[in-house]
Amino acid sequence: MKALVARPGGLGDVLLAGPAVRAVATRADRVTMLCGPRGAPAARLLPHVDDVVEWDPPAEPDGAGTDGLVRRLREESYDVALVLARGRHAP
């Protein structure tokens, strides 16, 4: 099974996602982490992450950058995805 774990944010946010990544890795053969450029170095340190997809969302929606990411994720055909959102949206 191929899994995608998405965690926006910086270095600390991605490091704190480590336990969730470890939990996903218990069932997945391959774990890819999707994060921004500030979090990518931390994602590469996590022991259960096999691949890192770095994406910096544009300030204004633009088809070119987003389309490339969507195409890449679609080509990988992940079986499961876990999106770890920031807590500021919580009630």
Structural write-up:
Strand 2, helix 3 and strand 3 form a beta-alpha-beta unit. The N and C termini lie far apart (33 Å). By secondary structure, the chain is α/β, with parallel strands linked by helices. The mean pLDDT is 88. The protein has a 4-stranded parallel β-sheet. It is globular, with a radius of gyration of 13 Å. The protein has 4 helices and 4 strands.
How do you describe this structure in short?
The protein has four helices and four strands. It is α/β, with parallel strands linked by helices and 91 residues long. The chain starts with a strand and ends in an 8-residue tail after the last strand.
The string of secondary-structure elements, in order, is EHHEHEHE
Which parts are unreliable, with pLDDT below 50 for 5 consecutive residues or more?
Answer: none
Q: How many helical stretches?
A: 4
> What's the mean pLDDT score?
88
Number of strands: 4
Q: Which structural class best describes the helix and strand composition? A: alpha/beta
Query: How are strands sequenced across the largest beta sheet?
Result: 3-2-1-4
Radius of gyration: 13 Å
What amount of the residues lies in strands? Answer: 15-25%
Distance between the termini: 33 Å
Question: What share of the residues lie within helices?
Answer: 25-40%
Oligomer: single chain
What profile does the largest beta sheet have? 4 strands, parallel
Task: Sum up the overall morphology in one term.
Answer: globular
Tags for this entry?
single chain; alpha/beta; 4 strands; 37% helix; globular
